[in-house]
């Protein structure tokens, strides 16, 4: 019986390992870059404060829009995104490819409280500011979006164009 109880407890704990972070309204504003794994993505890699070459302020509103909606970058630039939520709802800023954002948005509709935290995303509470430090080391056309259920579908998206060196 003790082995069965231990096995059951292990299975339960193993099943909760992927649920470490919440995607609800509380506690998701990010004012500093936390220690996260820096993983190369098609759209770049997490940046460092020392490497920042440019700061871009982005406003997020309850009209489901970003301002600016289009951002031009040079390959190799490290940007500091200062993300201001000017609305009364939680918003987020997630960088990725259209395919990745489409897939993530579909998951967010199915699991609106899905837990996740990556260096290319920031959840920003109403009236708060968050930041992302990101190095665009890959040329191409990428996207950013608010993937909170309904926001992406309402058109809360933008475009990042990274010009080759």
Account of the 3D structure:
It is a single chain. The chain has 165 residues and is of the alpha+beta class. The chain has a single domain (22-163), classed as Cupredoxins -  blue copper proteins (Immunoglobulin-like, Sandwich). Helices cover 17% and strands 34% of the residues. The chain contains 2 helices and 10 strands; from the N terminus they run H-E-E-E-E-E-E-H-E-E-E-E. The model is unreliable at 1-34 (pLDDT under 50).
The CATH class, by name, is: Mainly Beta
- Overall pLDDT: 82
Q: Considering the protein shown, what is the CATH homologous superfamily? A: Cupredoxins -  blue copper proteins
Helix content: 10-25%
* SS class: alpha+beta
Shape: globular
How are strands sequenced across the largest beta sheet?
1-8-5-2-3
Count the domains. Answer: 1
Work out the radius of gyration. Answer: 17 Å
Largest sheet: 5 strands, mixed
| SSE series | HEEEEEEHEEEE
Task: Give the strand content.
Answer: 25-35%
Distance between the termini: 64 Å
Low-confidence runs: 1-34
CATH second-level architecture: Sandwich
CATH fold type: Immunoglobulin-like
How many strands appear in the DSSP assignment?
Answer: 10
Number of helices: 2
């Amino acid at each position: 019986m003790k082995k069965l109880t231990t096995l059951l407890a292990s299975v339960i704990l193993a099943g909760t390992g992927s649920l470490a972070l919440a995607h609800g309204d509380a506690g998701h504003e990010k004012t500093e870059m936390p220690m996260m794994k820096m993983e190369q993505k098609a759209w770049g890699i997490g940046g460092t404060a020392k490497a920042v070459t440019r700061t871009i302020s982005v406003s997020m509103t309850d009209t489901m829009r970003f301002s600016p909606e289009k951002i031009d970058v040079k390959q190799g630039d490290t940007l500091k995104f200062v993300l201001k939520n000017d609305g009364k709802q939680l918003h987020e800023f997630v960088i990725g490819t259209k395919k990745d954002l489409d897939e993530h948005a579909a998951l967010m509709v199915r699991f609106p409280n899905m837990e996740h935290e990556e260096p290319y995303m920031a959840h920003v509470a109403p009236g708060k500011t968050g930041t992302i430090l990101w190095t665009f080391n890959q040329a191409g056309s990428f996207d950013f979006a608010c993937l909170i259920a309904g926001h992406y579908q309402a058109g809360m998206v933008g475009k990042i164009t990274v010009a080759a060196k």
